[in-house]
Structure to design on (115 residues):
């Protein structure tokens, strides 16, 4: 079996109102703080939808980012690189690590240990 899709990230200037929209219209429960102005996740069943403020270059209309949950980001990054996939460096926080890559069409994806 391949990797499991854990999260789809949507980029928005107003994270709170965008998350409230998906909560109100689609009845997706908000996970965590509904007033976080940077990052809010919603329970979409088999994966989460994350609303992310992101950088200036990731404003409205940017394509969603698929996020695959892995236990060992470094190990999975090494396996993907060995298979010809181009990936950026591993970014780490105290709670999780992640690494972005691009598919052949230029779409961004991420491998992440974030729960």
């Amino acid at each position: 079996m391949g990797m499991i899709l854990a999260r789809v990230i949507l980029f928005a200037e107003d994270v709170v109102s965008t998350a409230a929209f998906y909560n109100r219209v689609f009845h997706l429960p908000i996970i965590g703080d509904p007033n976080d102005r940077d990052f809010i996740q919603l329970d979409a069943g088999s994966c989460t939808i994350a609303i992310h403020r992101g950088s200036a270059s990731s404003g409205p209309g940017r394509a969603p980012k698929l996020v695959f949950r892995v236990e060992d980001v470094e190990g999975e990054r090494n396996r993907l690189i060995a298979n010809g996939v181009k990936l950026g460096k591993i970014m780490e926080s105290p709670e999780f690590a992640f690494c972005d890559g691009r598919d052949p069409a230029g779409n961004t994806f991420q491998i992440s240990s974030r729960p």
